[in-house]
Amino acid sequence: MTQPPPALPALAATGASGLREILLEVCSSPTWAAAVAASRPWHDRAELSAANAKAMAELSADDLRDAMTGHARIGTPKAGDATSEREQAGIRGAAPAVLDELRAANAAYEAKFGHVFLICATGRTAEGMLAALRERYPNDTATEAENVREELRKINEIRLDQLLDVKQ
């Protein structure tokens, strides 16, 4: 086993209420936060990553909705929210026509599925997010729920890694 990052033991040793608040900043699902917290201790990033994956796999449809409430609409990062702006950096400089298409595609997706289009936007361009939205739009509800679950897992993974990197 490799040496854990210095932040991991500190995070694992955080009190229950403090850890809950930290984890809710990563993912707004209280069920996910409770499951990840209950999986302590984590000896390395791989164990924390496994806890994230396990907690995401076990979320109900209601829990997934809770998790999605913490995410801005693609193409419209939350103003003043550094995480949202960083994750959606790929929309900066996009052509206005692409942003218009993204807004229209988002509206159609939301009307069909009843929630925002969720994708791990880190490292993606506006064009790439639009293409993914169009690719996923024909999905049925069950298939799309699993896509959302996987995208949330990826987002959580990135946010957990950044949390550990910042706390070092």
* Main beta sheet: none
Shape designation: globular
Ends apart, CA distance between termini: 19 Å
Helix segment count?
9
Q: What share of residues are in beta strands?
A: under 5%
- List the domain count as a whole number: 2
- Low-pLDDT runs: none
**Secondary-structure content class:** mainly alpha
The total count of strands amounts to 0
Q: N-to-C SSE series?
A: HHHHHHHHH
Question: Whole-number average pLDDT?
Answer: 91
Global Rg: 17 Å
Q: What is the share of helical residues?
A: 55-70%
Walkthrough of the structure:
The longest helix is centred in the C-terminal third of the chain and has 27 residues. Helix 4 runs antiparallel to helix 9. The chain folds into 2 domains: 87 residues; 66 residues, UraD-like. It is globular, with a radius of gyration of 17 Å. The protein is mainly α. The protein contains 9 helices and no strands.
Secondary structure: elements and pairs:
Layout: H1 7-12, H2 16-26, H3 30-38, H4 45-57, H5 61-68, H6 82-87, H7 96-113, H8 126-136, H9 141-167
Pathway: Purine metabolism; urate degradation; (S)-allantoin from urate: step 3/3
Protein name: 2-oxo-4-hydroxy-4-carboxy-5-ureidoimidazoline decarboxylase
Enzyme class: lyase
